[in-house]
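$ run holo --ligand "(2R)-2,3-dihydroxypropanoic acid" --emit tokens
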Amino acid sequence: MKVVVTRQIPEVGIELLKQAGFETIVSSKDGVLTQDELKEFVKGADAILSLLTDKIDASVLDSAGPQLKVVANYAVGYDNINIDDCKAKNVIATNTPGVLTETVAEHTIGLLFAVAQNISQADKYTREGKFMGWGPMLFLGTDVRNKTIGIIGLGRIGLEIVKRLKDGFGINFIYYDLKRNEQAEKEFGVQFVSLEDLMKNSDFVSIHVPLTPETKHLIGEKELRLMKKTAYLINTSRGAVIEEAALVKVLQERVIAGAGLDVYENEPKLSEGLAQLDNVVLLPHIASASFDTRSKMSEMAAQNIVAVLGGQAPINPIV
Ligand code: DGY
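-- output --
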């Protein structure tokens, strides 16, 4: 059976596929396949190991052919896959939940501290030779301890941030989600609030919802203007949850203090004006990028393919 992997990923998953006896073809392109290249590349595949940068829709599934059984996404987010198209064609779709939770939570915390304490701006300043000696007013930032952090989406990653910061930093956690998590409220003292109250009362707002038609532009100009002038917005989920042009506008107008972004509405493009701002930290979608975690994602995606092509149930089906 033939498995196609749309880009080089950590070897462990590729090895697993080869050991299972599949003809495993990894794209040799150093970059994302165009939609036409993707359609050509998947022809005749029984399984596709896809990335979040691959748009998997009916045209790609058709191009693969009727023998296609599974699309295993190398990501927990799957907004790149048209699940209805997969269902209509009896193709199982899987993702990689759980294995990246802690890494993304740690990274989000790092980004939060980076924006609060001007870490990347100060690093740039120092490298540029501008450091002329200690200064009493140089890069004054914001303390994180005893502040209110508002988590939008108290799922696996949101909750992991709460667990890691609740003791030691004296953080007051509030959250907004479509579903209340009363267990977490009791166990960790997080308080459920409306989205409006969360935006108004948080010193840091951190977004952890998947991108769906319901969450697209969940945070627009109206919501951003509710935030404190001293507050920061952090996003390590999906860019399009925020209306990026509106964010640029409020950052330019100093309506909020700053933002830390790992994801963008139209990756890899940034909205006009974003890169010129001095009150943002901008990262290239790397929140899950540790050697260990990316290897686990590779392994998990491959295990799903091995299961499905071996006639077993998928381990991590997307429902
Ligand atoms: C995911 O898995 O959805 C992340 O965005 C990339 O690792």
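-- notes --
The chain has a mean pLDDT of 98.
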